[in-house]
């Protein structure tokens, strides 16, 4: 009697973190404090693992950054730690209630590892997921969310720092609609941070195409600050209307965004249009945005 056909074995794809951490001894002081869990995500920079503090049980997510993937321009010297990635330096030296909080960091010959201090993972999600769940936010709630983000970006700007990858996926939101800006892997410290107020032009693109300004898409030398304002304009439009304003680079280059299907106030639409000006020189600064009549109205 022939035997039944065998059931094909399913192969479980190995995660990036398991490939790199297998048989690797991490920093002893890190292992003493944290227990690692499953992989939450991965990318070109490295990967993120869930974790908890052994003595408190507090949930964390730990970002592992490949040392050899950090660009030469993204290193900076810290007085205590020596050369470290810009992301760690910014988080270590900047505090704002709407920004991911620095707890500590560790390193070995292959990685930097950065535990986060954002909301509990079970009670929060990124803003992209939240928009998908709600489709869009009503105007007062959108204003509350956007004001928090703009306040954080303004604090960074005062210190001469640009995030350079403002988008809904880099913002975490909790059930009370409190938000935090995360992922400073593309951040830059401008010369004015050190007292040099001369304009600083960039030529390389950092960030996400759907949030990129026209001057960046045209490969022109650009100022980081007005490019950041453009990304905030795309973000505000997305929060209000549940979709990005430009359905491709060709639309971005014309500056003609999709006609909103939802009505908002004139003040609100004026702010959106001002941030999505084709000319960088015509866009408001982040501090002008915070004093705009729409945001000034509580």
From TrEMBL:
Record flagged with keyword Hydrolase: no
Positions of the catalytic residues: 165 (proton acceptor)
GO cellular component: cytosol; nucleus
GO biological process: intracellular signal transduction; negative regulation of apoptotic process; negative regulation of glycogen biosynthetic process
GO molecular function, one term: protein serine/threonine kinase activity
Coiled coil: none
Residues annotated as domain Protein kinase: 34-295
One Pfam family hit: Pkinase
Residues annotated to bind ATP: 40-48, 63, 126
Keyword entries, A-Z: ATP-binding, Kinase, Nucleotide-binding, Serine/threonine-protein kinase, Transferase
Cross-referenced InterPro entries: Kinase-like_dom_sf (IPR011009), PIM1/2/3 (IPR017348), Prot_kinase_dom (IPR000719), Protein_kinase_ATP_BS (IPR017441), Ser/Thr_kinase_AS (IPR008271)
SUPFAM superfamilies: Protein kinase-like (PK-like)
Membrane-crossing residue ranges in chain numbering: none
PANTHER family: CAMK PROTEIN KINASE, MAP/MICROTUBULE AFFINITY-REGULATING KINASE
Family: Belongs to the protein kinase superfamily.
Record protein name field: Protein kinase domain-containing protein
Organism of provenance: Phycomyces blakesleeanus (strain ATCC 8743b / DSM 1359 / FGSC 10004 / NBRC 33097 / NRRL 1555)
């Amino acid at each position: 009697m022939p035997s039944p056909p065998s059931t094909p074995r399913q192969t479980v794809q190995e995660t990036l973190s398991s490939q790199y951490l297998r048989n690797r001894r991490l920093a002893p002081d890190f292992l003493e404090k944290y227990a690692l869990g499953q992989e939450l995500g991965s990318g070109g920079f490295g990967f993120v693992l869930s974790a908890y503090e052994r003595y408190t049980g507090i949930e964390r997510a730990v970002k592992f950054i490949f040392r050899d993937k950090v660009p030469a321009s993204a290193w900076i010297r810290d007085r205590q730690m020596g050369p470290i990635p810009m992301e760690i330096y910014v988080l270590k030296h900047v505090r704002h209630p709407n920004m991911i909080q620095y707890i500590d960091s560790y390193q070995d010959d292959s990685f930097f590892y950065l535990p986060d201090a954002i909301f509990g993972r079970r009670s929060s999600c990124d803003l992209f997921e939240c928009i998908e769940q709600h489709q869009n936010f009503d105007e007062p709630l959108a204003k509350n969310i956007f004001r928090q983000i703009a306040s954080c970006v303004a604090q960074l700007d005062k210190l001469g720092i640009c995030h350079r990858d403002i988008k809904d996926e880099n913002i975490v939101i909790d059930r009370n609609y409190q938000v935090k800006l995360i992922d400073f892997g593309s951040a830059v410290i401008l010369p004015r941070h050190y007292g040099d107020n001369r304009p600083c032009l960039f030529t390389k693109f950092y960030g996400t195409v759907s949030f990129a300004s026209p001057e960046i898409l045209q490969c022109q030398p650009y100022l980081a600050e007005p490019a950041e304002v453009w990304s905030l304009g795309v973000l505000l439009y997305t929060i209000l209307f549940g979709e990005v304003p430009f359905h491709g680079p060709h639309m971005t280059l014309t500056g003609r965004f999709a006609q909103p299907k939802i009505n908002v106030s004139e003040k609100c639409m004026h702010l959106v249009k001002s941030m999505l000006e084709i000319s960088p020189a015509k866009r408001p600064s982040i501090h002008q945005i915070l004093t705009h009549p729409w945001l000034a109205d509580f």
